[in-house]
């Protein structure tokens, strides 16, 4: 649905925003949600311009019933993520952007099937350190650089009905990580810093413009952004489990 699913931080806009779920946010640092709401507003405006009547009668739910109180998000491939976390996962960042592996995928349940939702992914810096790889271990290596501009990746199926998001795991395979702010649809990260992806589920009520944001994160998905893999164990796991890494293995054996 989207030509450019990436939205970066813009000046805050006033929004009538519904309450955040305190349980979902409990383990997260405090965050400024303005960039999330701005991204959703921009995407909705784009969708309306493309097809003004597409969802004119799509939602018949009563928001006062709060069906999201049963919302549950489960990380897919959890065991694979845990294997990488054991050795401190690494994700390559390049000028042109590199896709993640493992891919962030999650199963969502408990949404209102007839309500409209936008799903977004962003990445938060989890500590105040710059990291370095020394003698086979990652250790703090100084003060962290200022955080990169807050960019969010809007899933290209957004906005869509709750029934759509619940029918199969939501796949963020097209997310690309970069170390340059080039606006090409990538998430900019600082190399040698540790990050954690966060999934935001935004319920959009077109009648009142009110938005309810629920945020989920999984410690297993933390990683250090690198321009080249440092730990050979991580390299071996990427080759073993990522079918697209076979070319790397073939080249290495030549």
UniProtKB/TrEMBL annotation:
<dbReference type="InterPro" id="IPR036960">
    <property type="entry name" value="T-box_sf"/>
</dbReference>
<feature type="region of interest" description="Disordered">
    <location>
        <begin position="47"/>
        <end position="68"/>
    </location>
</feature>
<dbReference type="InterPro" id="IPR008967">
    <property type="entry name" value="p53-like_TF_DNA-bd_sf"/>
</dbReference>
<dbReference type="InterPro" id="IPR046360">
    <property type="entry name" value="T-box_DNA-bd"/>
</dbReference>
<protein>
    <submittedName>
        <fullName>T-box transcription factor T-like</fullName>
    </submittedName>
</protein>
<feature type="domain" description="T-box">
    <location>
        <begin position="75"/>
        <end position="250"/>
    </location>
</feature>
<dbReference type="InterPro" id="IPR018186">
    <property type="entry name" value="TF_T-box_CS"/>
</dbReference>
<keyword id="KW-0805">Transcription regulation</keyword>
<keyword id="KW-0804">Transcription</keyword>
<dbReference type="InterPro" id="IPR001699">
    <property type="entry name" value="TF_T-box"/>
</dbReference>
<keyword id="KW-0539">Nucleus</keyword>
<keyword id="KW-0238">DNA-binding</keyword>
<dbReference type="Pfam" id="PF00907">
    <property type="entry name" value="T-box"/>
</dbReference>
<feature type="compositionally biased region" description="Polar residues">
    <location>
        <begin position="54"/>
        <end position="65"/>
    </location>
</feature>
